[in-house]
Amino acid sequence: MLPAVMPTYNRLDLSFTHGKGAYLYATDGRRYLDFASGIAVNSLGHCHPHLVKALKDQAEKLWHTSNLYRVPEQEKLAKRLVDSTFADTVFFGNSGAEAMECAIKVARKYQSAKGHPEKARIIAVEGAFHGRTLTTLAAAGNKKYLDGFGPVAGGFDHVPFGNMNELRNAITPETGAIIVEPVQGEGGIRPASLDYLRQLRAVADEYDLLLVFDEVQCGVGRTGKLFAHEWAGVTPDVMAVAKGIGGGFPMGACLANEKAAAAMTYGTHGSTFGGNPLAMAVGNAVMDVVSDPAFLAQVDKVARDYWVKLEKLVARNPAVFEQVRGAGLMLGLKCVLPNGDVQTAFRNEGLLIVGAAENVVRILPPLNISATEVDESIQMMETAAQKLVS
Ligand SMILES: *Cc1c(COP(=O)(O)O)cnc(C)c1O
């Protein structure tokens, strides 16, 4: 019989009663160190007091009014995002895929308003993930996810990630934009080289293409900068943000500069829920913490120490792990053994992580983890690795 919940996920038989900081408490009484963070969503861990307070305070005042009216909390968060990034304007939605849908619409509208409606094609890269709506699936071009869902939304061309020659060759008079994740998440924790990001900016300028970065997973402090592209010293024209920005409350945002968004006028886009007071209260609370330069410096420091320890772990266990990859606290271990087995072994020791493509396990801890929690995770990985080969 079909389960009441549509069985689209391969769920573990594991559920939780509560969480605190980096720890999750399971219904069977076990405690887990949660370095999956709800897939890079619980950016400040579970039940961060500042976020809980913001949510509770707002819950007693006002939840939702719709975008028929001004939403002061939304204006506040938009202003903060604008002040701390390349962007001049922000559209709020409820998820990463919606943020990407908005980014794609902004890119096409820009070209169309400039008198180039034919420039609706977008170059994306292999190994990308942009969400599960029909258009974001077409953008990523992953055949496995598109299979059976009818005609693939048109307008996307794909080139290998990191290859500038092929990207240049793919540009036609119909190309209007480029979409790239500065650090691929689902694709296996693959950071773009900083030089690649700079060259993308240059080629976009050369052909008047909009440069769109999908920072749904790598943004909001995850790499030790507020946004990952800051490491390269270049800015996109449009950026999709979600996951960590809500700290666990569903929200997404599409940020754009003035040039890109000039044609996004009244009536061009909308969302019933997007940017409602409850979501915005939490988003503002997340920003209170993560936009602090001292907080970001701490993320960077913890991440660098973690990297060194992971390198040693890999060196000690060459039959299990092959390589450390990533940026900041968006880390991956490329495995020798099947990543599913590694994930299970970690979990048996009490550590939760996430799988990814290329036989990688993703380590996406809360951004405010302590050195002690890092050490605890390394110890669990070590024990798991030893058990896997014994
Ligand atoms: C998770 C993710 C998305 C999709 O976000 P949803 O909230 O699941 O719609 C898009 N892009 C990237 C890079 C992601 O990691």
Automatic annotation (TrEMBL):
GO terms for biological process: L-arginine biosynthetic process. N(2)-acetyl-L-ornithine binds at R132, S271. Its EC number is 2.6.1.11. Its cofactor is pyridoxal 5'-phosphate. The keyword Lipoprotein does not apply. InterPro entries: AcOrn/SuccOrn_fam (IPR004636), Aminotrans_3 (IPR005814), Aminotrans_3_PPA_site (IPR049704), Class-III_PLP-dep_AT (IPR050103), PyrdxlP-dep_Trfase (IPR015424), PyrdxlP-dep_Trfase_major (IPR015421), PyrdxlP-dep_Trfase_small (IPR015422). Keywords: Amino-acid biosynthesis, Aminotransferase, Arginine biosynthesis, Cytoplasm, Pyridoxal phosphate, Transferase. Homodimer. This is Acetylornithine aminotransferase. It comes from Oceanibaculum pacificum.
